[in-house]
What we know:
Residues 18-67 form the DUF397 domain. This protein is of the alpha+beta class. It is built from two helices and three strands, in the order H-E-E-E-H.
Amino acid sequence: MAYGRCPPPMTKPDMALLAWTKSSLSGDSGSCVEIARAPELVFVRDSRDPTGPALTFTRSAWRAFVTDPPSVENPG
């Protein structure tokens, strides 16, 4: 399954303005990802590196990913 093309990443100052959240199921281990939603995009980053890079998805690509994520058996 193809998830479409990802748009170019936002600059770091723009990323700092986003409201980042992580799953309530992630616990206190610190090994999790955070997401932030913008009007047309979804951003994903490593919670241990909040100033590091983030993946950028269109909303439709993100919806496809969380609805039918690739697996080792079926990488898409």
